[in-house]
Amino acid sequence: MTARPRASLRRVLEDLGSTVLDVAASPGDLDAEVTGVHIYDPLDEPLLQEGALVLAVGVDSAERVRALLDAAGPAAGVVVKQPVEVDEPLRAKVLETGVAVLGLTRAASWAQVAALLRSLLAELRGEGDLAEPGQPPPDGLFSLANAVCALLDAPVTIEDRSSRVLAYSERQEEADAGRVATVLGRQVPERYRRMLEEGGVFRRLYQSREPIYIELDDEGINRAAVAVRSGDEILGSIWAAVREPLSEQRRRALADAAKIVALQLLRQRAGADTSRRLRADLLSTVLAGGRDAAEAAGRLGVASEHLCVLAAQLTEETYDDAARLEGDRQRFCDALALHVGAIHPKAAAALVGSVAYAVLPLQAGGQEETRAVSVAESFLTRVGPRHAANIGVGRLAADLTEVARSRSDADRALRVLRARGASGQVAGYTSVHFEALLLQLSDLVRADKQAPTGPYERLLAYDAEHGSELVATLRAYLDAFGDVNAAAARVHVHPNTFRYRLKRLTEIGGLDLADPDARLGVMLQMRIFGR
């Protein structure tokens, strides 16, 4: 059996380069294995897995870093924003705990570095690659980027068709400000992308099967680029920051590298599709809560107690392109998985149909649904500019046997938001319980092909025949809790006129407004039939 590739702290630092992370204080060697990324929150109990890289958001003094090192236990390293205050007591604490302290450039956001690290760790461990049984996984994109960098003697990025950075080489600090911004954001900044489009660079790049040379004038160091293809399909491109045109030997090296990168991207695409289908199947099994839920939870690595289900769905009315909708659904789900994974290492998310479900472990102790709603609101705030969506939140499940109920809760809360025509909203099930019950009751009524009855039916028929407004009068009266003046103002008539209409509707409909059951019955029919 081939052992899983090991991602050491030293390798992570070498691949990221000093553009992003630097060592502030080291216990000696940097051979500790990095197993995952954890975002530190001083308000939560630290649940750190061995080898975690802790992103210390808001930790800005040597004293607070020392306290975090004491709490970090088996972590591989702690990341704080530069400049890092390193004094002798902190150095001593680093040696005592064996946990390195790393400095993150101030230009990077925590979301950026979390995404960078997770992507890099997946590459280093070979996750998503399709290797033959008994064979080591193929080299990752970051390794390929470093190899191309060595061949060309220039910093390199590998990008997809949308100019998102899939991997990058070392030595990025030798490039210009545009390249640094690209690496940190994992996306070519809009200003530079627009400049390349207006200059016809992408058209030249994708029409040519050979590397092209791009002069950027005063915008920074020039570029050499080549399209990455699979037959006639454009998979992405490779970009090298160079100061002069490539020699023929280096042009051939770049063209050959594009073929290798194409194979890797195809492997990753196949592996990612397979992995996503597997995760969706496993999470569906967990959400069903049957006898196989425990095994599926174990394979997914999710918690089995104190779980809350989130059901997230894009506002599909904003799409007129089915292909773009499907792509955005998957990117939206990936972002949700990243978000909940940063909160708890045993959370999971997957796309099931058109809904992205997340299983979020929570510490029991009250207000769990409120905390889950807060997590969902924070996520929508982050993705809101790119994805309009709603999220329903289920009640806490004490164990896997109750997860199906939490999933149903989340689905019903999400349905309430859709029925409201909401976008960018989060609803916990308990806050929309009554609306959810009304929707369920409406389903039963439609299934049985039922129609309005009693006083409500008679009032509808009278309005239809005489063009009167008796139903509107009744609705205004009930909505105003029997306050005639307020109800008359709602329908823009004099209170005396309103009282006359009220008397007429009780006579015609045979409705006793003094009877609470009669009022409830007609109110429910109004809500269910919506007329």
UniProtKB/TrEMBL annotation:
It comes from the Bacteria. Residues 470-528 form the PucR C-terminal helix-turn-helix domain. InterPro entries: CdaR-like_regulators, CdaR_GGDEF, PucR_C-HTH_dom, PucR_C-HTH_sf. It holds the Pfam family GGDEF_2. Residues 292-416 form the CdaR GGDEF-like domain. Belongs to the CdaR family. This is PucR family transcriptional regulator. It comes from Microbispora siamensis.
